[in-house]
Amino acid sequence: MRNFSKAKRIVIKIGTNILTRDNGVDTAYVRRIAQHTSELLKNGKQVVIVSSGAIGMGCGKLDPASKVKDIKMRQAYAAIGQPLLMAEWRKSFLRYGVTVAQVLVTAEVLNNRKTYLNLRNSVETLLKLSVVPVLNENDSVSTDEIGSAFGDNDTLSALVASKIDADVLIMLSDIDALYDKDPRKFSDAKPISAVYEITDEIIRSAGGRGSGLGTGGMKTKIEAARIAANAGCRMVLANGRLKNVLARIMAGDEIGTVFMPKRKLSNRSRWILNNAAAGVINIDEGAMRAVKNRKSLLPSGVVSIKGTFEAGAVVMLNDDAKAVTNLSSSQLKNLAGKHSSEIRKVLGPKHRDVVAIPEDIVIIDY
Can you give the residue range of the structural domain that contains 219? Predict the structure, then answer.
């Protein structure tokens, strides 16, 4: 369960509250992480760092007392803070002869299949060159409200771990572990050492949002664990301020909470599952039984359509599955409930006669 000796590829996510101090980056902490990461590299590991903290650093430069709630100001602070953050990472890693690379990501990049694969290939190449990629959300240009896309990079770190087939995701936070109830409200709350399945009870035990500078919280960490689990990747949540925390986790010390994977989906299935749905195709019970039994979704099982989307988009099938649709919303509205043979009569002889094939359907397993 906590034997990471064979783990080859590691993603380390460092939260805002751990990385920053006194309205600026904690230089000594960054150096320690660089030192411990360099030791992992010497032992043949590949490491990706997902680093928060750009907004906090930008805020510290211009207005340390600000709560940074305005989206435009958060974007501006991110633009100011990101080069400062990378300068700290670069300087710290150079002490150990390690080269780092900056990779900025938006939700749009991950939702588009082509750019998703391009990002994967880029990170893979950097790892082969023994370079440590340092990823962050591109807050200064993101079209989504900052924090809603990746939640202080919790979700981003899990998506990256999923994308590159990481063996373990280490999430360093100011949260010690997952507790059976909110430790801020209940003095008798107990830490949970291992989670084998993310149940409704586990979700209820999660607290609210994070700090003023960060946007994470236990709920985003639970979602990150779920994403990692679908990739067959273990996730460890631990207090990033513990002495030698990386070495202790890799040595198998029982600190924090380890989330165990439940299933391992293919890379394409993970992309479908983690993609933002462009709409909903409501289907009848018979059609849902069919897709759960690895059958194609036929237009005869379609009841109604919600949203506007093109062919090739990822959509929800009721609340139970996601799929890449072969037909647009307008086409489906004309063909809903009709036999497959009627598709080619309406759309032409070269068009597929199914809404989605089994390889493009992923059941949501919560």
Answer: 9-269
